[in-house]
């Protein structure tokens, strides 16, 4: 039986809220549902949630502002953003502000539940050693990049980088396995915890955003290399020397 998790749903469409609530409660989770951004932010700051499902278009305070406010003091609680918009700008901005994933409406309940399950699983694993690191390793150093795994901090040339949760997880996986090529499907399964055909753009978006933060020239990357026809790999150690 699924262990109960505390989930906050911030959604102003009552039909969607009722449908999502019913299915998540059927899985054995406790769910609080609120219809606007102000209440959502208040609930999130007062409670302790394992996952926040956040609609982008909300009355009063929109989902982007709620996400930004939450991430100012909480970098770990997974956020799944729901959006009726198809513009890539909104999705990328949501991810940049700290959302872990997004779904575009209309979406299937099966897909929503898969995303929820993956994000909850990731939350459970956060306290364990990051994927891909040698047993017990507390730091990773790759050229000018330094990763403190216990503090979840990244330094580039001694200066701290502000990474979203998924950007950090991707970087740890890559840097912990220099030279290993990962397909987009493998990255979806390993970092996001789900596999859905047609969602390779989720990986591409995160890789592009990560490159803008760690690469001097994102168009000619030093750290995260494109493996044409396959996916991506982190530079081998001799390439960074």
- Which term fits the overall shape? elongated
Second CATH tier, the architecture of the largest domain: 3-Layer(aba) Sandwich
Radius of gyration computed on alpha carbons: 18 Å
In terms of per-residue confidence, which ranges show pLDDT below 50 for 5 or more consecutive residues? Answer: 127-134
The CATH homologous superfamily of the largest domain is named Response regulator
CATH class category label of the largest domain: Alpha Beta
Report the major sheet.
Answer: 5 strands, parallel
Helix/strand structural class: alpha/beta
- H and E string: EHEHEHEHEHEEEEHEHHEEH
CATH topology of the largest domain: Rossmann fold
Count the helices. How many?
9
Question: How are the strands ordered across the major sheet?
Answer: 2-1-3-4-5
What share of the residues does DSSP label as strand, in percent? 15-25%
The overall pLDDT, averaged over residues, is 86
Number of DSSP E strands = 12
The percent of residues in helical segments reads 40-55%
- What gap, in angstroms, lies between the N and C termini? 50 Å
How many domains, in number, for the residues?
2
Quick synopsis:
This protein has 241 residues and is an alpha/beta fold. It has 2 domains: 6-125, Response regulator (Rossmann fold); 139-240, Orthogonal Bundle (Arc Repressor Mutant, subunit A), CATH 1.10.10.10.
Task: List its salient traits.
Arc Repressor Mutant, subunit A; Rossmann fold; five-stranded parallel beta sheet; 241 residues; single chain; 2 domains; four-stranded antiparallel beta sheet; alpha/beta; 40% helix; 20% strand
């Amino acid at each position: 039986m699924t262990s109960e998790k505390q989930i906050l749903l911030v959604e102003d469409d009552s039909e969607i809220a009722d449908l999502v609530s019913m299915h998540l409660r059927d899985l054995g989770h406790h769910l609080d549902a609120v219809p606007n951004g102000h209440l959502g932010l208040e609930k999130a700051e007062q409670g302790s949630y394992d996952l926040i499902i956040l609609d982008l278009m909300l009355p009063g305070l929109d989902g982007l502002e709620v996400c930004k406010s939450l991430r100012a003091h909480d970098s770990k609680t997974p956020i799944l953003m729901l959006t009726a918009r198809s513009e890539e700008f909104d999705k990328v901005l949501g991810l940049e502000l700290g959302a872990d994933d997004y779904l575009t409406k209309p979406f299937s309940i099966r897909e929503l539940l898969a995303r929820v399950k993956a994000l909850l699983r990731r939350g459970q694993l956060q306290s364990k050693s990051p994927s891909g690191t040698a047993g017990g390793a507390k730091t990773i150093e790759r050229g000018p990049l330094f990763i403190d795994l216990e503090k979840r901090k990244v330094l580039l040339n001694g200066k701290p980088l502000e990474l979203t949760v998924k950007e950090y997880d991707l970087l740890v996986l890559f840097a912990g396995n220099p030279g290993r090529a990962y397909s987009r499907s493998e990255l979806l399964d390993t970092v996001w915890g789900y596999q859905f055909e047609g969602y390779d753009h989720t990986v591409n978006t995160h890789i592009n955003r990560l490159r803008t933060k760690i690469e001097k020239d994102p168009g000619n990357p030093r750290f995260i290399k494109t493996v044409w026809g396959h996916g991506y790999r982190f530079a081998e150690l001799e390439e960074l020397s």
